[in-house]
Amino acid sequence: MAKKISQDSEEVVAIVAVLAQAMRGGLTPIAALRQSLENAHGSVAEKLQRVLTSIELGQPLQSAVADAKQKSLTPALEELLNKLLVANQLGSALAEQLDSLGQTLASQIAVEKLSRAVASETKMLLPLVFLILPVTVIFALYPSLQILNIQLEGI
To answer: pLDDT tens digits for 61-114?
Structure first.
């Protein structure tokens, strides 16, 4: 489940980056969303495409977002929809908010990947400690023990 949320967050980061660039290019939020979803694939793109289709069919943005929130959404996608909604209601600058959202999500993804890497590193230490290190010690001590055994036999 955590891997799925991470993958959805990565999709949201990519869509947010394209969306922010389109907004800087002068597109409206809905036109920018349409353009950012043209080449997007994945579960997040499908959910956003449903919201966009609802809007294009005449449903207000607020109710389209409310309908989308009733279904299971990841926190990253819900945050994106909230930012779109607030920007539409208040007329705030959306590109800067999307940039900060993208940076936040990217840093969360990096922290999650780092924690998974640390767990993997710990798991990789087990064969080293219990298999490789004892064999190395045996290889190092065996010749000395043979020499000591030979010397003891001579006594």
So the answer is: 888 888 888 887 888 888 888 888 888 888 778 888 899 999 999 999 999 889
- The answer to the question of residue 134 being in a domain is no
What is the CB neighbour count within 10 angstroms for residue 31? Answer: 13
Tell me whether residue 86 is in a domain: yes
Nearest to 55 by CA among 75, 92, 81, 76: 81
State mean pLDDT over 136-151.
89
**Helix runs in 25-132, H state only:** 29-37, 43-56, 61-70, 75-90, 94-127
Rounded to two decimals, the pTM is 0.72
Q: Domain for residue 53, yes or no?
A: yes
Count: domains in the chain: 1
Residue 121 belongs to some domain of the structure: no
